[in-house]
């Protein structure tokens, strides 16, 4: 197994912290939040997909166009309420990021990239960042689904 394959397997396994929750989600969960000013589950799901798309494009150079409704000045207005659309979007972002990772040559993981979001990092470090980002929000989603209110 080469380095690209190993990194892809690590990323896919870590993403199960998110995807293992999908079978238990229902549309009423999408509006749950822990606090009136906190983000709801639907917003967080959309955000995870958008950031994965952003990484596929800006870090790994995949030629895709992604939305940025939840990034930067994006506000949670309870607008992401269709569970199937969100799950489809997250599948699309997974496929795109997987394709982008597969494009990296096995010896290309030490190549440095610079983005406005997090400065200069190697591609290997960038994988750490997107992996922890998804896991972080997956944990939030688990807590919100269990304890949150609509």
SSE string: HHHEEH
Number of strands: 2
Q: How many domains make up the coordinates?
A: 1
Distance between the termini: 46 Å
Secondary structure category = mainly alpha
Report the CATH architecture.
Up-down Bundle
CATH fold descriptor: Four Helix Bundle (Hemerythrin (Met), subunit A)
Biggest sheet record? 2 strands, antiparallel
Number of helices: 4
Would you identify the regions where 5 or more consecutive residues have pLDDT less than 50?
none
Characterize the overall form.
Answer: globular
Detailed description of the structure:
This protein has about 150 residues and is mainly α. A hairpin with a 3-residue loop joins β1 (about 110-115) and β2. It contains four helices and two strands. The chain starts with a helix and ends with a helix. The protein has helices at about 5-20, 40-60, 85-100, 125-145; strands at about 110-115, 120. The protein has one domain (about 5-70, about 80-145): Four Helix Bundle (Hemerythrin (Met), subunit A), CATH 1.20.120. About 55% of the residues lie in helices and about 5% in strands.
């Amino acid at each position: 197994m080469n380095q690209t394959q190993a990194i892809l397997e690590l990323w896919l396994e870590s993403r199960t912290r998110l995807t293992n929750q999908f079978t238990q989600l229902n549309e009423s969960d999408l509006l749950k939040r822990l606090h009136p000013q906190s983000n709801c589950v639907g917003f967080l799901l959309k955000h995870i997909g958008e950031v994965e798309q952003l990484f596929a494009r800006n870090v790994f150079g995949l030629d895709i166009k992604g939305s940025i409704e939840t990034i930067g000045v994006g506000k949670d207005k309870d607008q992401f309420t269709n569970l199937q659309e969100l799950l489809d979007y997250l599948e699309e972002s997974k496929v795109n990021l997987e394709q982008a990772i597969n494009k990296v040559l096995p010896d290309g993981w030490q190549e440095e990239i610079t983005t406005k979001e997090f400065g200069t990092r190697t591609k290997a470090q960038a994988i750490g960042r997107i992996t922890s980002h998804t896991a972080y929000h997956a944990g939030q989603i688990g807590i919100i689904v269990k304890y949150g209110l609509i």
